[in-house]
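Project standup — Tuesday

K.O.: blocked on the structure for the chain from last sprint. Re-posting the sequence here as requested.
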Amino acid sequence: MASILDDFAAAVARHPDRTAIVDGKGRAVTFAQLKARADGFARAWHARGVRRGDRVLLAMRLDADLYASLAALWSLGATVVLPEPAMGIDGLRHAARVTNVSAFCSSGAYGLLKFALPALWKLRHLRPQIMAGDPPEGQPPGEEDIALISFTSGTTGAPKAIPRSHGFLTAQHHAIAPMLHSPGPERDLVAFPVFVLINIASGQTSVLPNWKMSRLAKLPASQLEHWIANQNVTRALLPPSLSEKLAHTDMPACFHTLFTGGGPVFPDMLSALQTAKAGLRLVCVYGSTEAEPIAHLESTDISVTDHGKMTTGKGLLVGHPVDGLQVRIVGDEIQVAGKHVNCGYLDPKHDADNKVHEAGTIWHRTGDTGYFDNEGRLWLLGRVGTQVTVAGKAIFPFSVEVAARQWQGVTQCALIAVKGNVTLVIEGDTQHIEAWRTKAAALNIQIIKHMASIPIDKRHASKIDRSALQKAIT
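H.V.: unblocked you, prediction finished:
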């Protein structure tokens, strides 16, 4: 099976002069230039002693050198450790502590962290530098070798380290590539690093964000609009929080497709985007850190009947599972298995709560509840453990939240239990509060509470931070 590195080399051979990456400052690097930098880094770091099996902690600017560094380290057989960016320096400290890294690779001012964190003091410090000469000798990494260690978001506890083998990354490429396939060249604005890797392997251009990923909630819609227009972006891969901002922009004629995921994609947002730009293709992608993608859905496939079900408490439609993935529902929870599903965590003690070994198959417990409809499509109801009891019946949040988000004046909402009382917390225009109470009563929800700003997650700013909300509301 060809690896991501093999596919990258093939893309270079096909399109050496095509732009591979445009960074946040507008600097473009071709596929040939990206490969040359990766090869130069590999020679320099091999001379510094990086060998197969080394674990290298990366703290780099979001630019072409980040991806050249990934390719360079993988070509040497090293494992790249990527800390959770939403955690800032705490994420770097946590990654160094739990992964037993042997080197630290940084660019720009991130190099100062080498001196700020005691855990990094004794590590080799690698910086992007080009060395000429012959390619380093060595055996290329195998399918089972670990290519990458990344982390869960940590919203339900300490971030868990997830090892991803080269075989896993290849399988993920094959799962995502059909969804992103285009017969011609595209210029994709990509907010998810994994999709940049897929584009590099597929020969498509990736335009990187010109904003800080840790400050998504504060990004002005005008900045997003200008970046898309200035870079002649044709497609975008964005979390729902940025997709919502996109609905308030003037999208250029060349922009024709939006892929969105990393959080629930609600029908009200899709309607706003379709109103903002007629004919815009919208693709909703459902997945998790351990299994991306699980399912996807074209907005044009959402029927009037489907929309009606979402407004009357049936949950959130996310579409058919992707090819090659096994999906089942066990006790309301969605479980998945397949080649692009993480089969275990770096710390085996985390497997007990999240992995099910059954007849030679490893099932990942997503922590999401849902069901299949008669067409074999997946519907989400919310996270395991977030259900509340209404009229003696367990109700999951999406049964109410998906409907409530479509009420006039509602911008965000969350269904929680406050001191034993089921409460719908709403962020929005309070002049509609009486109408909200009437509509909520029809769903057997008697208590409405307005909140100026409902807490959201730090990673993609697209999910309710229910723990923070619970603390704030009580």
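K.O.: great, moving the ticket to review. The longest helix spans residues 31-47. The chain is about 30% helix and 25% strand.
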